[in-house]
Amino acid sequence: MARAATPGTHLGAAERRTAGAARRTRCDTRRSCPRPGDSTRDERGGRGLSAPFRRGVAALAQYLQREGHERPVPRKHEEPVDIDGQEHVVKLGVFISNTKSRRNRLTPEQRQALTELGVQWAA
Hints:
Elements: H1 13-29, H2 51-67, E1 79-83, E2 86-90, H3 92-101, H4 108-116
């Protein structure tokens, strides 16, 4: 059995291989670890909008249609949205705040979706 590496000790080559295999086996059994051949991208090659982002954009569009562009979205506002016959409650104020703080990391598709709604900071 491989011994754990502690500060100041060194593992031999065989022990390193055994320890690495144990880590790979543990990781392969957890759902959070990607497995070889699994794709984390969607069928469009990784482009497109995620479901939560689409829900946020739909909620924003509904809010802007009802309230207009002059009124900012309150941070605690929750917007019920009906998507494909299912009602979702989107924490719209949190969505706007998080999206705005991460604007430098938005994909071109995400920027375009927000720009089409008239969101000035997304342009």
